[in-house]
Amino acid sequence: MKERITLKKSYKQHWVWAIALGSSIGWGAFVQPTNWIATAGPVGAMAGFGIGALLMMLIAVSYGFLIRSFPVSGGEFAYAFIGLGKVHAFICGWFLALGYICIVALNASAFALMFKFIFPRFIENIHMYQIAGWDVYGTEIILATFVLLIFGYFNIRGNGFSGKIQFIFCVVMVLSVIILTFLVGVQPEAGLANIHPLFPVEKTALAAIISIIAIAPWAYVGFDNVPQLAEEFSFSSKKAFNLIIIALFFAGLLYILMILATSMALPWNDFISKQLLWGTGTVVKNLLGNFGLIILVIAVSMGIFTGLNGFIVSSSRLLFAMSRAKFVPKIFSKLHPKYNTPYISILFTILISLLAPWFGRQALTWVVDMSSIGVTIAYFYTCFTAYKLFKWNMGPDYLPSLHEISPIKKVLAGIGTIVSILFLGLLLIPGSPAFLGFESRVALAIWILLGIGFYLIKRRDLNTLSESDLNYLILGKSDLSQKNS
To answer: Other CB atoms closer than 10 Å to residue 294's CB: what's the count?
Structure first.
């Protein structure tokens, strides 16, 4: 077996925290509050995101344990292999790769959408065509392309550069949201009186809150980028769990503050009925003027940039890990001769994302909605594998290097597994609050068929590898009973 390629240990703790937080908070936290308020009311939306963060923390228990035990690139891909074997590892990696790349593309298009709100005459130039009711302009394609190329370059340059800017962007984003919420709250015509009614009159409080909890796995997607970086930690992998929990806390706080700021600006039923292009942007500008809008634009820009950067990192590491294990072509595990980064995987992520602006935002959201399946599948594999490895007691199959005796954590991993299945049901069961639309289901079917075809092509190569070979390539050790070095 050829020597296993490894990545340089260069990611610092605060960079990893910033990757988790910045990936969890994208454009949606700043663009979607009016939609969430319309769905659940201000208190329903805030309660839903708060409970959703707590549910993700339950799932994070499994992530923390597996990152500590298997600090390798690939994250959930590796965990699925440990829990259920190579076929399930491929399924998990196949869906995650699509999901991560789609989120990169969606963040790039969100940057153009923000410009469309602020400078509509600038963006609405070079009209090209219309797809699914969405007008595609050459200017927004150029803008999205520029942003993708810049962040692709940052990531090829190395972890130190991308890690530093990620942390700076996250700090600016957090401060911007806190300042914006404070400024809205102190205005005479704004305040907590505007958040009434607390829930939509046509829904019960419980139904309103559940409708928001249903989107929690996708609202908080991004904290699961941490295991993709585990191989590159410059610190003990035991600290990963705390970093994830702190990131989820801040993510939940930012979601809640943006909903609060939007609903305090003026009576929420007034702006919901107007179906504004960017409700939060409109109410903030009306209340605070251009100064408030500038702060909001800074916050949303930081959210977009940190999402772009975080998911470029995670998608490239996932492709690198799958390539190292022979699941995808060898070229994806090639490292840059100077910067020691998986630059081919980074370039591939950028190249695929560059196609997205040409298809219009509406068509892209269908694929992104479908890719939510991949995220939920990853949650399931992680929790299920952790459940298998946590032990009630020291039984005959207990291995100190592999298992941990912790009935409480085993219960939490079991709950996380069940929660993941429930979230998957919300996506696939007709009539549920998060049921995939027709176009998304078609995209899902196509991706499944492509995955089956690709796996059949690679199956012969994978069958030539022994279990110990795969253990070594994926996990860095040929025998799972070996202790981590």
So the answer is: 15
